[in-house]
Prior knowledge:
The protein is mainly alpha-helical. The protein has helices at about 5-30, 35-55, 60-65, 75-90, 95-120, 120-145, 150-155, 165-185, 190-200, 205-220, 255-275, 280, 290-305, 310-325, 330-335, 355-365, 375-390, 420-435, 440-445, 450-460, 470-475, 485-500, and strands at about 225-230, 235-240, 245-250. The protein has a three-stranded mixed beta sheet with strand order 1-3-2, sandwiched between helices. β2 (about 235-240) and β3 form a beta hairpin. α13 packs across α18. The longest helix is centred in the N-terminal third of the chain and has 28 residues, at about 5-30. It starts with a helix and ends in a 5-residue tail after the last helix. It is an enzyme of class 3 (hydrolase). Its cofactor is Zn(2+).
Amino acid sequence: MDKITRLKEILEKNRAYQHAMTILSWDLETEAPVNAAVSISKTLGTLSELSYLTLVNDEVKDIVYGLNFDELNEIDKKLVLNLKKDIFDKMSKIPVDVYSKYSELSTISTQKWGEAKRSNNLEVYAPYLEEIIRYNKEFIKYRGYNGHPYNLLLSDYENELTVEIVDEFFKNIKDELTPFIKEVITKKREELKDIKARFLSKSYPIDKQKKLSKEISEILRFDYNSGVIKESEHPFTTNTSNKDVRITTHYYENDPLSAIYSTIHETGHALYEQQILNVYQDNFLGGGVSMGIHESQSRIFENMFCKNDSFTKSLYNLMDKYFGMDITLDEFKLLLNEVNASLIRVEADELTYPIHVMIRYELEKEIFSDLERKENAEDIAKKWADKYEEYLSVRPMTYSEGILQDVHWSQGSFGYFSSYALGSAYSAQIYNAMEKDIDISKELENNEFSNINSWLKEKLHQYGSFKDPKDLILNATGEEFSPKYYVDYLKNKFSKIYEVEVK
């Protein structure tokens, strides 16, 4: 057996462990009883240790570094480069017992987060969050870093991303958008208040919301032969392959738009996974290449396609069919594009959304600026509230609308949030390029997503993690990434809606 064949045999064994862990984690979030959390976390800890030992050993290291790289085909070259980065530059630096304990901790931490959020009780979750942070600081020290310690966590989600790059990105956002937001946010307040009051004054039965969410995902061409949708506390997407992609949403009886747009957002993620070619999936290059690219796909569906006037008419008609609408189509369009200084990131409007992400970025950057400092959850919660007051002039009155609103930290996903803003910026540039090839408005008017999805597959989705983010953006748009498309898109869209002059 040659070396590359043996390597893939080992990776196939590891894929089985990862498959089991994904399904157990999915079950824990969607189906499992609360009291099962401890036993499931122990099982996940055991499986993570087995996965670790399958990859981090002398045999794999000897194979990876003993291969004649120049003799490999392009797919195998990329596979080897990814393994060197993910295993020998990252995973192998962390002792197996530490890795296993952390896996158990993160599972329990996620459960405690859900409990704390539902009860607005930070004390239930605080020690777990503090321990998750401590572990991540230790991981940075194990792995080593250049420049700011937080660079290491940022680059886990977007290759070569640094605080310098993100600082510059958010400086541009602050300079260009903050004055614009302050002006827009004063417009049409009474009109929106009246529309919102009428829209939220009635009940939208959850059983009908579920049917509507499924119908919308089908319009977007989510493949239910290779996917499923369930309910969870925090919407998410997970998958074991391009043939098994699972999404969740969360329903509120008085606010159907929350579930609708969570479903659309997660469907964007799911379509990316479902459209990866088998040749990459089968050769361990499946899955999105980065969280920034992944978020670009969820955001392009959520905002640029499904809040587009060309699509919202059909969405309005669907909602009228299921619930009966007490507001007009024009009022509905304005409601979908309401700009408001709000507290909840996942419900934030498109214009203020990057500010929510920037707040989390600044908090994380500070947390990981000192690897020896012990963090206090209560202190972080206060800083969270202070930043919301500083940037958006609103202050959370409960932990659930503050530090407890996001699941990410409970799972140790520090460095993730920046990818949301980066993804939004990617999506604007991708949309601009797509418009040159497709009459997007006409497609959306007809609820037709086949041409849109085919374009995304050709330019982005099919490659899985074979092409790097920079190459994908260049391939899709014909130029390197530029945030100007994002700023221009937001200013052009909202200046028209709110009749504000762009300066």
